[in-house]
Amino acid sequence: MTMYSDMTGLALEQRTSPQQAWENAVQTLAAQGTGTASSRGKGCPKAAFVGLAEHGYIRGCTASSDRPLRENARHALCAYHLYLADPSLLNRKPIWWQAVAAERGISRKGQNGVLDVMASLIQHDAFLPAAETASL
């Protein structure tokens, strides 16, 4: 597990807004001395989690946004679809990210925590693919 997987798991336990749930998870890990302030504050995993939650893709979260799904959440959705086609990707993040990057035309080399969020959602059975209301 990674720090972002842990944050996702902690955020899933919260009964607050997705934004606040993520912030509470960050605070919990900070209190435990996990990661650096910079790594805990990374925007990509937070954007993936909050975006998916606000659009109703996470169990226990009601869709509350009419804005288009943001980039990192769209990357996470793409990752989910690739996972469905090949579940072994869950344990092969570098290859999984290469597939996402190729599919989405992404030039950045690293997944920046986005796959950690998606992997945690899958492992917690918290991702709701039936919420498919946004385009990739």
Would you kindly provide a written description of the structure presented here, covering whatever features stand out?
The protein is 57% helix and 0% strand. It contains seven helices and no strands. The longest helix is centred in the middle third of the chain and has 15 residues. The radius of gyration is 14 Å and the shape is globular. The model has no long low-confidence stretch (mean pLDDT 92).
Determine the N-to-C terminus distance: 27 Å
What class, by secondary structure content? mainly alpha
Percentage of residues assigned to helices: 55-70%
Stretches where pLDDT falls below 50 for ≥5 residues?
none
- Rounded to an integer in angstroms, the radius of gyration calculated over CA atoms is 14 Å
What does the secondary structure layout of this molecule look like, with pairings?
Blueprint: H1 3-12, H2 18-31, H3 37-40, H4 43-54, H5 71-85, H6 93-104, H7 114-123
Helix pairs in contact: 1-2, 1-7, 4-5, 4-7, 5-6, 5-7
